[in-house]
Amino acid sequence: IPSAGFEPVIIQNLLEGDELRTDVAAIEKAILEKEPANILCVMSTTSCFAPRTTERLIDVARICSKYGIPHIVNNAYGVQASRCMNIINEAIRTGRVDAFVQSTDKNFMVPVGGAVVASSNADFIKQVAQTYPGRASSTPSLDVFITLLSLGWSGYKRLLAERKEIYDLVLQKLSKVA
Q1: CB atoms within 10 A of CB 57
Q2: Any bridge partners for residue 118, and if so which?
Q3: Cα–Cα distance between 92 and 65 in angstroms, integer?
Q4: How would you label 89-120 residue by residue, b for 16+ Cβ within 10 Å and e otherwise?
Q5: How many CB atoms lie within 10 A of CB 130?
């Protein structure tokens, strides 16, 4: 970000109980202090490592809509988590999310090096595609294609269901030792 001539404004999270949560008021305060016209975008994330919990993405999306500021979401781990995808859908429906970016290795069981940029705005995706043609290897796309083709729709859905079952089991076992 600095090498492109921009200044990142980092908003610290709030400690609520044993979780770190988005400080929505501080985001809005920073937007007003810097002035909305001077802000390139707001970047948020759907998931991270404990003790940080899911950002208040819907609230952030509403702020971005209110001030006309583009909103990019790091959804690196989120495709495999229905909760994250539901939050993104709600944020798009009630606020502003211009794009959300998923990591192929974290969500689609392929080697590191690829990402899926998604948006509810087809024109936005066309603009992104036009700024990046031919500059990267096609290997990550091919890896995802082959993996999904080999799994099929039912195989992929089965993996998502297994993930939820394993999560419940891990949560149950951890609660016994915590």
Answers
A1: 24
A2: 100
A3: 10
A4: eebbeebbbbbbbbbbbbbbbbeeebbbebbe
A5: 8
What's the CA gap between 6 and 50, in Å, rounded? 29
Q: Are 101 and 117 in contact (CB under 8 A)?
A: yes
Which residue do the tokens 């001077």 mark? Answer: 38
**Pick from 38-42, 98-102, 129-133: least confident:** 129-133
| Mean pLDDT to the nearest integer, 84-111 | 93
Nearest alpha-carbon partner for 71 in 25, 32, 40: 40
Of 21, 167, 175, the C-alpha closest to 80 is: 167
Binned at pLDDT 50, 70 and 90, residue 77 comes out as confident
Least confident of 45-49, 62-66, 120-124: 45-49
pTM for the model: 0.85
